[in-house]
Predict the structure.
Amino acid sequence: MNIIFLGAPGAGKGTQAENAGEKLNIPQISTGAILREAISKKTAAGQKAKKYVDNGELVPDDEVICILKDRLSAPDCTRGFILDGFPRTSKQAKYLENSGIAVDLVIDIEVPDEKIIERLSGRRVCPACGASYHTIYNPSHRGMICGRCEAMLITREDDKPEVVLHRLETYHRRTEPLKEYYGKRGILETVIGQDDVAETTGLVFSIIDNFGARSECEQSPHTARANQ
Ligand code: AMP
């Protein structure tokens, strides 16, 4: 099963993509996380991407597509994958479609801009393992230390207020039209992001469970015929 999570930066798609990946036992692929790792390791791709990521701009399509293509060729993707932060432009969505990479379900997490700004200002991330927290809504039980790997939590460069506004504007202009793109294909489901992360997870899981039940029903006549 291949799932895409759509949503503004800070809508909670990373957390929900991770939860869904654990539930389905398939990898969660975050192009943002891959880019941040490349930047911290100062690889050629990372050095090219740094100025875009730091300024809250989209990395050029060809660079991101190349990174994603490489990741999807890994053996752990054969049973399915969750995409978190890709596609972000119509060119990226068309890349998936033209390459025959099936998208079964797109889950869009909706959160108003005011809430996004409040959320991102409180977001703290672990530079070592990538875990994400919020000072109010999802604090680490160890305060400013990562509850998973014990590294000191940091505020991302691109969570600074002026960069957040730019990222939101970019999201509305370049990524939001993908809702219509996937809506027309009949695979878009919308979740209203709740303040309580667990509540949003419940809504996301019920969409995934319903999709699974629907697919089984749709497959059963074929299975029956094949068995005749
Ligand atoms: P994220 O962690 O998903 O918020 O991504 C952080 C940053 O990485 C974004 O603000 C962009 O600069 C860059 N990025 C991540 N995914 C993409 C993508 N699919 N296309 C272009 N840039 C991306």
Summary: Strands lie at 2-7, 28-30, 81-84, 105-110, 123-125, 132-134, 188-192. The pocket of adenosine monophosphate is lined by residues 9, 30-32, 35, 52-53, 56-59, 64, 85-86, 88, 92, 158, 167 (CB under 6 Å). The mean pLDDT is 92. The first helix runs from residue 13 to 24.
